[in-house]
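Researcher: I've been going back and forth with a colleague about how GIY-YIG nuclease family protein might be arranged in three dimensions. Neither of us has a model we trust, so I'd like an independent prediction. The organism is Streptomyces kaempferi, in case that matters for your notes. Sequence below.
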Amino acid sequence: MAHAALTAPDRLWSAQEVLSRPSPVPAAAGVYGWHFEQAPCADLTAGRLLYVGIAPRLRKRVRYHYRGNAAGSTLRLTLGCLLGIELRRVGKSGTRMTFGKAGEAALSQWMAENARVCWIEHDEPWTMESEFISRLDLPLNLDQNRHNPFHSRLKELRSQARQRARELAVSA
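Model: Here is an independent structure prediction for GIY-YIG nuclease family protein. You can compare it with whatever you and your colleague have in mind.
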């Protein structure tokens, strides 16, 4: 039953809805799932669950995915890499990596147009994450998901993006 709440939810929520005040996303702990109206790459199927995550505070986490940056969101890092947005080292130390101001804005716009989210409230979401990843085809999840056919390609793509970023000057 919990799987269906993420794979075939009654409702998917857009960025505009999630970012509105009051937000429909509960402040409670839970598991969230991402669906995409347009897949972030040709090898993935649109209109289905591609990624799950867990959060002690769903509202804060889901909102961050929609408007944060790649340094704080593995989902944003993955999507930006798949979409071919250039990853850059940023900040004074140059250790954080994001897509820069323009790249993050482009990614946020793409997500606003294509990414839809659903969630399940659960007091101990970490107890559900492993089960979802082992039972569902979640190509955008890397952790605990080596069995997924897309895993090695995604891992390599993200590694190449990081390597390229290290070769570039630190961005403002």
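Researcher: What would you highlight for our discussion?
Model: I'd start with this: The chain has seven helices and five strands. After that, consider the following. The CA atoms of residues 22 and 138 lie 30 Å apart.
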